[in-house]
Write a structure and sequence with these properties.
The protein is mostly helical. 62% of the residues lie in helices and 4% in strands. It has a two-stranded antiparallel sheet. A two-stranded antiparallel sheet has the order 3-4. Belongs to the class-II fumarase/aspartase family.
Length: 442
């Protein structure tokens, strides 16, 4: 698979450089050495054993190709890993390595170790998005624009409110991710620390402390709630980023031109059309998010696993977990740059408010006219004047003032006020202030 050309561009380069085969081996070894340290501390291993294991294995060059080949016969990488590690140990140490553990303990714990720094990076990126979003929404809390429903012009809103919605979505996802616990896995063959009795849980808690992972209530071999929670939290963040990218890409359309992605050398260029400036960052975000959604589906379908060990369900989780985190990290890198450098064209927003000839203000005009001519006539007159204004390229208030049925009955100042989009934005400014207060509570 040409991953470097069709998969990796959607991912975080930093994340990719940290999540490679050797990193997984190091994470598995970290688990095994922590296990030995805990067992030694509890008197289950001779004094000095854990240090000797570390000295023998810390610099050992594991054969990654052989590990990969071993997965085909053993079903997971922990089996060939343990074999290689024991082969590198002197005879008197072999029996102390991997004592009381099972393959799932090694793999699950190693994956949690790999994901821990990725969650920290995701949090940092989401904080960047929050800061950029707050600055953008405050700068445009009075930038009036068209609100669109079902892809059509509806009523006025402000760009500040739109940014507030993007920022709230991303921050809600950040707080959800921040609450995710990455637990250590240690239960032995069937999850009850066979042969260790009351020491088993002490070992589990001790390993968690040494590795900086959460200590679960019980081993979670086929209780995949931790994976379900993590996967859906990643997906929620991907959805928030995708919402941002979708809205921005729609607003960049030539006919709208209300925003533009940050400029950059070669960014958005077409292979054949020199005039184009494509919303490439939005495309990368949406492409990554769609893949995260697919990975989440795999995790959800693997949530129910049989008895004390999954048969294929557990195995199916590994790629979606790592790839999902790397894809989200890549999407958020683009989202942060997008929000920090978004070009806002307030003039285009004002221009688009007038595209319908004032029809988007038909609602407040109808409310103004109803007491004078009745509800049905008010709606008809408001619509007729809007069409005339659009067709003749005249101001909506001017056309209304000349309408035979209301001429002289409503003051021109009242008509002008009813036709002013800037005076019909409801709680937009208050919403921005409220959103900022919530966002800054952390």
């Amino acid at each position: 698979m040409p991953a470097a050309l069709i998969q990796h561009p959607f991912m975080s380069a930093e994340g990719l450089s940290a999540c490679h085969g050797q990193a997984l081996v190091e994470a598995m070894l970290a688990f095994e050495l922590a296990l030995a340290e805990v067992q030694e501390a509890e008197g289950a291993l001779p004094a000095g054993t854990s240090q000797r294991l570390r000295e023998c294995l810390a610099a050992h060059a594991f054969d990654l190709d052989a590990l990969a080949a071993g997965v085909a016969s053993g079903g997971n990488v922990a089996i060939p890993f343990v074999k290689q590690a024991r082969a590198a140990l002197p005879a008197d140490l072999k029996r102390y390595f991997h004592q009381g553990a099972t393959s799932q303990d090694v793999v699950d714990s190693a994956l949690m170790l790999l994901l821990k720094p990725r969650l920290a990076c995701l949090d940092a990126l989401l904080l960047r998005c929050r800061a950029a979003g707050i600055a953008l929404m405050q700068a445009h809390d009075q930038s009036v624009m068209v609100g669109r429903t079902l892809m059509q012009q509806a009523l006025p809103t402000t760009f500040g409110v739109r940014v507030a919605q993007w920022t709230l979505g991303l921050e809600q996802a950040r707080r959800r991710l921040a609450g995710i616990a990455l637990p250590v896995q240690f239960g032995g063959a069937v999850g009850v620390h066979s042969g260790w009795d009351e020491l088993g849980l002490a070992f589990m808690d001790g390993i968690a402390e040494r590795l900086g992972l959460a200590a679960p209530v019980l081993p979670w071999h086929t209780d995949r709630q931790p994976i379900h929670a993590l996967g859906t939290a990643l997906d929620a963040a991907a959805g928030a980023a995708e919402k941002l990218a979708l809205d921005v890409s729609l607003l960049t359309q030539t006919e709208l031109g209300e925003v533009a992605e940050p400029a950059g050398e070669g960014m958005g260029e077409s292979s054949s059309m020199p005039h184009k400036r494509n919303p490439v960052r939005c495309a990368l975000i949406r492409g990554a998010a769609r893949q995260v959604h697919g990975h989440t589906t795999v995790l959800l379908n693997a949530a129910a696993q049989p008895l004390e060990r999954g048969l294929g369900e557990w195995h199916a989780e590994w790629t979606p977990l790592i790839d999902g985190a790397l894809l989200l990290e890549g999407a958020l890198e683009q989202a942060a740059v997008l929000l920090e450098g978004l070009e806002v064209n307030a003039e285009a927003m004002r221009r688009n408010l007038a595209v319908t000839g004032g029809a988007i203000m038909a609602e407040p005009v109808s409310r103004l006219l109803a007491p004078v001519v009745g509800q049905d006539a008010a709606k008809r007159i408001a619509a007729e004047a809007a069409e005339t204004a659009r067709r003749e390229g005249r101001g909506y208030a001017e056309v209304l003032a000349e309408h035979d049925e209301i001429q002289g009955q409503v003051a021109a100042e009242e008509l002008a006020r009813a036709c002013d989009p800037g005076l019909y934005i409801g709680s937009s400014r208050q919403q921005v202030k409220r959103a900022v207060r919530w966002l800054e509570q952390d």
